[in-house]
């Protein structure tokens, strides 16, 4: 049966990819115009067009993104901390996160033809190979937060390719939260790795894609001495919620400072 379904899966992936590109080309001209307004105002406008792209693409490929709110629809400026399982995660963020926000993104992605231009307009770039580059991205994130723009960070640092629900967190998100006194908002993508595996391109499949919003975690009054405890608290909250709602298997993991 799997052999018979393989041609159908290939056609579905080609259709999804072509549709992805077609909608992106349609929104490129207004994004170019928005870029003339600067990184703050222009970037905010860019996300409305990216949300339009996501609102069209997901249902047209049969992926139904559904929010599950356990946070009573909290409003405000947050530092979103999100688990990372799939290439779909960035697209899901565009669809569900409160605007305005900016994700933290790898600087290497800006070199991709066509997509790289949109990427540069919509993320805070980080060069992990450069100390100066990392410091510059931290300064930009702090500027965004102080202007009322939320930041999205994958605290695991990269896509989780293990059998653990979560891998150990890096310190960056928690350092920024404390330095800017911005509450942390845990958000969990429960099905993205099932919909689109990071291992094989042909694993894209239609179906549900749940997003769980958890109550924010305040950092008011915390100092850098509190960072390890804060990181462990957020990890524990996210891990417990994933264990309750997720269909992924889990291997116990001990959180550690990174």
Automatic annotation (TrEMBL):
What's the domain of life for this entry?
Answer: Bacteria
Would you kindly state one Gene Ontology biological process term found in this protein's UniProt entry?
A: phosphatidic acid biosynthetic process
Please list the GO terms describing molecular function: 1-acylglycerol-3-phosphate O-acyltransferase activity
Task: Note whether Ligase occurs among the keywords.
Answer: no
Boundaries of every Phospholipid/glycerol acyltransferase domain copy:
78-192
CDD domains referenced in this protein's UniProt entry, alphabetically: LPLAT_AGPAT-like (cd07989)
Q: Which UniProt keywords apply?
A: Acyltransferase, Membrane, Transferase, Transmembrane, Transmembrane helix
The answer to whether the entry has keyword Amino-acid biosynthesis is no
Q: Where are the transmembrane segments?
A: 12-33
Q: In which pathway does it act?
A: Lipid metabolism
Question: Which PANTHER family does the entry link to?
Answer: 1-ACYL-SN-GLYCEROL-3-PHOSPHATE ACYLTRANSFERASE
Q: Output this protein's name.
A: 1-acyl-sn-glycerol-3-phosphate acyltransferase
């Amino acid at each position: 049966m799997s052999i018979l379904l393989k041609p159908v899966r290939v056609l579905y992936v080609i259709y999804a990819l072509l549709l992805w590109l077609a909608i992106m080309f349609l929104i490129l001209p207004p994004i170019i115009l928005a870029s003339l307004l600067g990184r703050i105002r222009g970037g905010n406008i860019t996300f409305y067009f990216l949300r339009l792209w996501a609102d069209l693409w997901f249902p047209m490929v049969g992926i139904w993104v559904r929010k599950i709110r356990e946070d009573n629809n909290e409003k405000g400026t947050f530092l979103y901390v999100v688990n990372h399982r799939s290439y779909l995660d960035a697209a899901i963020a565009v669809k569900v996160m409160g605007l305005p926000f900016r994700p933290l993104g790898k600087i290497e992605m800006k070199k991709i033809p066509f997509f790289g231009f949109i990427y540069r307009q919509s993320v805070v770039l980080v060069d992990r190979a450069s100390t100066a580059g990392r410091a510059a991205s931290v300064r930009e994130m702090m500027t965004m937060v102080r202007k009322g723009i939320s930041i999205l960070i994958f605290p695991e640092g990269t896509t989780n390719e293990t059998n653990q629900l979560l891998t150990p967190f890096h310190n960056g998100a928690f350092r920024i939260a404390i330095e800017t006194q911005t509450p942390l908002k845990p958000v969990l993508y429960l099905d993205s790795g099932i919909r689109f595996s990071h291992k094989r391109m042909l694993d894209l499949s239609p179906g549900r894609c749940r997003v769980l919003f958890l109550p924010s975690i305040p950092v008011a009054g915390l100092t850098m001495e509190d960072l390890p405890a804060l990181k462990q608290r957020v990890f524990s909250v996210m891990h417990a919620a994933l264990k309750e709602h997720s269909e992924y298997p889990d291997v116990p993991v001990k959180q550690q400072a990174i």
